[in-house]
From TrEMBL:
PANTHER family: ESTERASE, PUTATIVE (AFU_ORTHOLOGUE AFUA_1G05850)-RELATED. It comes from the Bacteria. This is Erythromycin esterase. SUPFAM superfamilies: EreA/ChaN-like (SSF159501). CDD domains: Ere-like (cd14728). It comes from Actinopolyspora mortivallis. The lineage of its organism: Bacteria, Bacillati, Actinomycetota, Actinomycetes, Actinopolysporales. GO terms for biological process: response to antibiotic. Transmembrane segments: none annotated. InterPro entries: Emycin_Estase, Emycin_Estase_proteobac, Hydrolase/PRTase-associated.
Length: 425
């Protein structure tokens, strides 16, 4: 018997087929998702690559199902914590389409024009609207201003004498700002070491003072205002750390697990939202597969990161469920660093090798679902043998049933090249 035969049998028994990607179609084909989700408070919907239209559409259909049939009321995205409030305001029907141009944020993780216009329409017409919140550092780590401007506004109210520290940080940060960390990190690396250290020092001094004077700050404002301002400050400090981490990573000398700093911030942001939500609130979390998986991320045997899903699984246990998205297509969108582009990378289509035995994709194909849209529950799946899943244009080795509770597989991938939240749909 081949290595893939037991997996093929498992996938045959635990896989259902979906009708298509029409986001407005009836949802009955997604009913198997109900058992996968169970009573979990947080359900993560992943994607195996950014800039893939099928993943966006499948996620929208699952969002509808979880909102309309399972009572989820909040969607959290791999999107800046600091920018999300303005986008949520727009998504809940305030202003007109032109006002979207004033909203910042990244499109890298699927918050693209197609999705946001659909969410706005859904919230306007559905009996089950969704609040939108962010969990990430500002603009995929490319800017500090979205976090530091509201921080400065708060400090002018409670501690105006230290606003100068924010202004010093902004004066430095504005010299290397970009649309993602792929743009900002190389520019940051061109600063003098003294300027780099001055930025970190200003943010660190602010954080220590902020935490020490919480009673004073709260007496001059309120607890909610203090908590949100502190989260903005922590966003800026985590983003600052990632400039060094990404520079070292790009240079091939990154510290083991160093990018965990960003994932830990995202996990703590999700905890922040949960702690302040009404009793019974259920959250859908949307991010890359590598961020939502429950197992550590290794590349070439080296620890790359403890992902957000790893921390959330420690925090929530079975109250956290992770659903990956992958595909059986022969090509997929890939992001390549490029200092000559506005985003810091180019998006191209990369040809892929045939899925190898032991991969999710090979098991789906062997089970006869390679040409269909399929949903497979991995709960109670065989503990050995299923040990890789596609990620971007490569594969990630991980014990897949421990990493994810389910996987949705598309037979096709269509690349979109949206670089701005404000691009045409």
């Amino acid at each position: 018997m081949s290595r893939s035969a037991p997996l093929s049998d498992w996938f045959c028994e635990h896989t259902s087929t979906l009708r298509g990607f029409d986001v407005d179609a009836p949802l009955d084909d997604l009913e198997p998702l109900r058992d996968i989700v169970g009573d979990a408070r947080v359900v993560a919907l992943g994607e195996g690559a950014h800039f893939v239209r099928e993943f966006t559409h499948a996620r929208q259909r699952m969002l509808r199902f979880l909102a309309e049939r399972c009572g989820f009321t909040v969607v959290a995205f791999e999107f800046g914590f600091s920018e999300a409030a303005a986008l949520d305001h727009w998504l809940r029907g305030h202003g007109d389409d032109a006002d979207l141009a004033t909203v910042g944020g990244t499109t890298n993780a699927g918050v693209n024009p197609e999705l946001v216009h659909w969410l706005r329409r859904h919230n306007r017409t559905s009996a089950h609207p969704l609040r939108f919140v962010g969990v990430d550092t500002p603009t995929a780590g490319g800017q500090l201003r979205p976090a530091l401007e509201p921080l400065a506004d708060y400090l002018r109210e409670v501690d105006p004498e230290v606003v100068i520290l924010v202004e010093r940080a902004l004066a430095i940060a504005d010299r290397f700002t970009g649309t993602s960390v792929a743009v900002a990190a190389p520019k940051w690396a061109q600063l003098d070491n003294a300027e780099q250290d001055a930025l970190t020092a200003s943010l660190t001094r602010l954080l220590l003072r902020f935490r020490s004077l919480e009673p004073l700050y709260v007496s001059r404002s309120d607890q909610a205002g203090y908590d949100r301002a502190l989260r903005h400050l922590e966003a800026a400090l985590h983003a600052d750390y990632m400039f060094t981490a990404m520079r070292e990573l790009f240079a091939g000398r990154g510290l083991e697990g160093d990018t965990s700093v960003r994932d830990h911030y995202m996990a703590e942001s999700l905890r922040w939202h949960l702690d302040r939500a009404e009793s019974g609130t259920r959250i859908v979390l949307a991010a890359h597969n590598n961020h939502i998986q429950k197992t550590p991320v290794y590349f070439d045997g080296e620890l790359a990161a403890l992902p957000m899903g790893y921390y959330l699984h420690l925090l929530l246990g079975d109250d956290y469920r992770a659903l990956a998205q992958t595909h059986t297509a022969e090509h997929v969108a890939e992001m390549h660093p490029s200092e000559d582009t506005e985003t810091g990378f180019t998006v191209t289509e990369e040809r892929l090798d045939t899925p190898e035995p032991g991969s999710v994709e090979a098991a789906v194909i062997d089970a006869g679902h390679g040409a269909e849209i399929s949903l497979t529950s991995l709960r109670n799946a065989p503990s050995e043998g299923l040990d890789s899943i596609r990620t971007q244009s490569s594969s990630l080795s991980t014990p897949v049933p421990r990493a994810f509770d389910a996987v949705l597989t598309s037979p096709t991938t269509t690349t979109y090249h949206t670089a701005s939240l404000h691009d045409e749909r």
